[in-house]
Amino acid sequence: MHELGLAREIVRIVTRAAAGARVVRVVVRVGAWSCVEPTALGLCFDLAAAGTPAAEASLEVKRTEAPSRLDELVVEEMEVV
Amino acid sequence: MCGTCGCGEAEPSGAPEPEAPGRTVRLEEAILGRNDALAAENRRRLAEAGVASVDLLGSPGAGKTTLLCRLIPELAAAGPILVVEGDQATDGDARRVRKAGARAIQVNTGSGCHLDAAMVAGALDRLDPPPGSLVVIENVGNLICPAMFDLGAAARVVVASTPEGEEKPLKYPHAFRSADLVLLAKVDLLPHLRFDVARFEENVRAVGSAEVIRVSALDGTGVTEVARWLLTVGGERVDARA
Fold it and tell me: By the 8 A CB rule, do B188 and B63 touch?
């Protein structure tokens, strides 16, 4: 369940960048070789975000197949209100 | 049509107002960025101290610790061996490698399925490896999660054993792709198994470029060869002793 550790990092990244604003949407890019199961990541994100300004945020996982990006794991963008 | 259930009724009144659109913030930040930065720091620190290092990966029961215990006496002739033992629970493995002649500390990950660079940084603080030593980081028995987390070791060694079958490299390509050396362990069992060594080696080549060494902790096959490989890994160790 390395997804929980990754979800915690995602929450840390977005809440720091949001600087107190409420995060409503988070988009991450996950390379095809990155060993990440999108469903598990979504579940873990909800757990990790509970009690933070990202608690109500939806997580969108984009799977990338581009050969140069097969290993990538990136928080692409977020929406804050 | 009602947008809630498609029942054909008009949209129920009193539906919540759509939320005002938010502000989109572009981030492009690596999720493992913090781990990777810590791993780079571990790597720099080890290289500067003239310490060689390897990350040892494999399934539970592949024989990582048994092999390490067999390697330690051969390695110890060249300099101190320090071991970071990762397991979810117990300190049994640390006690085993201490008995074999290494200094060892156990890192228990609790519910965690892998070591990360921060755990290794903490372990290095405690071990304080001297110049010319070799640090072996034995990860939690798992071929999936540890493959993603760079720990900062100079090289990665993946152990697979003959009873696990020839298809392991194809089933867990991430671990084998990231390996610098693959050890095929428990080759003493080959007379009792239907295991095709050539096919295993083909499968390793299909996913990565690691060299394969056949080993047995029981009869000693390959042990000297692996020890020689480990002692030249990183180069820093060799330089420090020159």
Answer: no
Name the pairing type of β-strands A73-80 and B23-30.
antiparallel
Q: What is the rounded average pLDDT for all residues in chain B?
A: 88
Q: How many structural domains comprise chain A?
A: 1
Structure tokens at B147: 């493959």
Note whether A1 contacts B174, CB cutoff 8 Å.
no
Whole-number Å distance between alpha carbons of B240 and B133? 9
Name the residue range of residue A22's domain: 3-80
ipTM of the complex: 0.93
Interface test with B, best of A1, A2, A26, A81 (most B CBs within 10 A): A2
CATH code at A65? 3.30.2320.50
Chain B nearest-CA residue for A24? B22
Q: How far apart are the two ends of chain B, measured CA to CA in Å? A: 81
Per-residue pLDDT reduced to its tens digit, B180-230: 999 999 999 999 999 999 999 999 999 999 999 999 999 999 999 999 999
* Cβ contact A33–B111 (<8 Å): no
Rounded Cα distance between B32 and B115, Å, is: 13
pTM of the model: 0.85
**Residue A70 DSSP class:** T
Q: Answer whether A13 sits within 8 Å of B31, measured CB to CB.
A: yes
**b/e sequence A5-32, b meaning 16+ C-beta within 10 Å:** bbbbbbbbbbbebbeebebbbbbbbbbe
Whole-angstrom CA distances from A27 to A18, A61, B4, B36, B84 are 14, 6, 25, 21, 36
CA B100 from chain centre, in angstroms, equals 21
- Residue numbers in A near B29 (CB within 8 A): 13, 17, 74-75
